[in-house]
């Protein structure tokens, strides 16, 4: 199979998708009429004219420039490029426009993944290809799962099945955590994709799927798994059904790692418990948190993690860009909105507003906090006291602000303020808000599609202002790879916001006990230099570079 790049609506070099469409191929293709299609141009097989040579020459120049544009930074081995080349190397026919086209919208990441991480991801892809759904190894593992007993001769594949909980931001963070756990323990990650998540993401691994098959045993019961289920690891330990010396372990265990998990559930983060869990082929994990930082406190993983991530602040940035590519239907929504509203701005600023408790976060207080933040950080020019000027056309916009919120009031006030008064610097500022749904609708597919569109659009910003505690904002700035300005969630509004000290998301509900003593409460944010407390949540944990 001939590898090919098929990019439509190429925007670079001034071409606009509404007026021009070009397809780029890496090979010549003959059809039955002996015509040859080269980079979207067609020449007849019965001879060349000067116009034909001109067209072929032009398309070759365009193709060369595009390659230079994509690979202009020879020192950068970006994880996005790695994810793309994985599919080309295998000749995959995967339909995922965003995997190829994201380079045209995103700025190149300044954060280089380690060569060890790249090698580890290649090895994982081979593991997933060998053990993924419908393979012989998978079928043998399913028989073992149904039996309830471990047969070490039946299959050498092990699995972690992720089960959804909470909103899209929480889901993306917990999937990333589960994937890293799979990398560290040689387990294949499978996603229990429910209706509300269908069609959000492309398949991340070439020539295989990460979706849990419909014929998976007790699949209809997986989504109902909760903290009280008897077959969970925490409950089986608490009830002395299993212990560290149990000779015959079950073929599967539930892991409950959501925000309200208890002490026994959190024993997952202890080295001796990992030794036990390593013997169980199937782990079914329910989580809605970014539990990844706690794995950096485990001695059984620390050497491998040091090799994978010498830069501790880029774990989600690299893994998130590797795993999460918008599906074609989502990508079309993203690129249309970008072209219509954001493309021509000299600078793009994202403001993400999440209100958790309306009674303690009244509108005027939050609005004043946003204005104080953008003025303190000089993100936008101040407005004068003069009368309104004519509202600018899109061609005049120097700065554009993307506002994302469930409510419209913040956007309307900002737009009115800058629409009624000219800026003191003469800069033109435009404001846009893609949606305002009023309330979170986690279990609606259309709501999650819109959420993913807005997260991705935020991740294309040059500057980001996000709400404290918000996983939606965490994902956006993590994919972008910048330290955001965080709107502090507190009654005192001075300062109104602060620059994040790390690119990483926050783990909101980490364990606070000593694994060796188990009854002793300790400060897990003071054990190692690179795991400390979050800027926006004093008891949370996140990754920092040691310095």
UniProtKB/TrEMBL annotation:
One of its GO terms (molecular function) is galactoside 2-alpha-L-fucosyltransferase activity. The chain crosses the membrane at residues 52-71. It comes from the Eukaryota. The keyword Ribonucleoprotein does not apply. Keywords: Cell wall biogenesis/degradation, Glycoprotein, Glycosyltransferase, Golgi apparatus, Membrane, Transferase, Transmembrane, Transmembrane helix. Gene3D superfamilies: 3.40.50.11340, 3.40.50.11350. GO terms for cellular component: Golgi cisterna membrane. It is a single-pass type II membrane protein. It is found in: Golgi apparatus, Golgi stack membrane. One of its GO terms (biological process) is cell wall biogenesis. Its EC number is 2.4.1.-. Pfam families: XG_FTase. The keyword Cell membrane does not apply. InterPro entries: XG_FTase. May be involved in cell wall biosynthesis. Belongs to the glycosyltransferase 37 family. This is Fucosyltransferase. It comes from Acer negundo (Box elder).
């Amino acid at each position: 199979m001939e590898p090919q790049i098929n990019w439509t609506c190429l925007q670079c070099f001034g071409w606009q998708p509404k007026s021009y469409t070009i397809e780029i191929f890496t090979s010549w293709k003959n059809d039955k009429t002996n015509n040859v299609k080269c980079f979207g141009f067609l020449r007849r097989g019965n001879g060349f004219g000067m116009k034909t040579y001109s067209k072929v020459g032009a398309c070759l120049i365009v193709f060369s420039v595009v390659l230079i544009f994509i690979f202009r930074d020879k020192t950068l081995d970006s994880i996005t490029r790695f994810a793309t080349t994985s599919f080309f190397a295998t000749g995959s026919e995967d339909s995922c426009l965003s995997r190829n086209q994201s380079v045209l919208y995103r700025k190149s990441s300044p954060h280089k993944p380690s060569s060890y991480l790249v090698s580890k991801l290649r090895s994982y892809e081979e593991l997933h290809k060998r053990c993924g759904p419908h393979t012989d190894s998978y079928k043998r593992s399913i028989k073992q799962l149904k039996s309830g007993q471990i047969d070490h001769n039946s299959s050498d594949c092990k699995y972690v099945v992720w089960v959804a909980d909470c909103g899209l931001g929480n889901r993306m963070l917990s999937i990333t955590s589960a994937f890293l756990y799979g990398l560290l323990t040689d387990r294949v990650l499978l996603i229990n994709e429910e209706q509300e998540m269908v069609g959000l993401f492309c398949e991340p691994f070439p020539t295989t799927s990460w979706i849990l098959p419909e014929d998976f045993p007790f699949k209809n019961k997986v989504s109902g798994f909760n903290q009280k289920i008897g077959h969970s690891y925490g409950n089986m330990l608490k009830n002395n059904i299993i212990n560290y010396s149990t000779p015959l372990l079950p073929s599967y265990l539930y892991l409950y790692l959501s925000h309200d998990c208890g002490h026994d559930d959190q024993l997952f983060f202890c080295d001796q418990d990992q030794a036990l869990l390593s013997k169980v082929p199937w782990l079914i994990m329910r989580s809605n948190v970014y539990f990844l930082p706690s794995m950096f406190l485990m001695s059984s993983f620390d050497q491998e993690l040091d090799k994978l991530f010498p830069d501790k602040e880029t774990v989600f940035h690299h893994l998130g860009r590797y795993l999460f590519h918008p599906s074609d239907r989502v990508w079309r929504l993203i690129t249309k909105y970008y072209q219509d509203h954001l493309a021509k701005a000299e600078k793009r600023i994202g403001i993400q507003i999440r209100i958790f408790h309306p009674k303690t976060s009244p509108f005027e207080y939050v609005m004043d906090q946003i204005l104080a933040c953008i003025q303190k950080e000089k993100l936008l020019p101040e407005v004068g006291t003069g009368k309104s000027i004519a509202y600018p056309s899109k061609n005049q916009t120097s700065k554009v602000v993307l506002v994302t919120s469930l409510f419209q009031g913040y956007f309307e006030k900002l737009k009115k303020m800058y629409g009624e008064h000219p800026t003191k610097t003469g800069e033109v500022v435009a404001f846009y808000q893609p949606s305002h749904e009023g309330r979170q609708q986690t279990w609606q597919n259309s709501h999650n599609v819109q959420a993913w569109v807005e997260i991705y659009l935020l991740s294309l910003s040059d500057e980001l202002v996000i709400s404290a505690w918000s996983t939606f904002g965490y994902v956006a700035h993590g994919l972008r790879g910048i330290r955001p300005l965080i709107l502090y969630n507190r009654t005192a509004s001075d300062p109104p916001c602060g620059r994040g000290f790390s690119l990483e998301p926050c783990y909101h509900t980490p364990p606070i006990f000593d694994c060796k003593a188990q009854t002793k409460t300790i400060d897990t944010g003071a054990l190692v230099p690179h795991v400390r407390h979050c800027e926006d949540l004093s008891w949370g944990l996140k990754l920092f570079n040691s310095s």
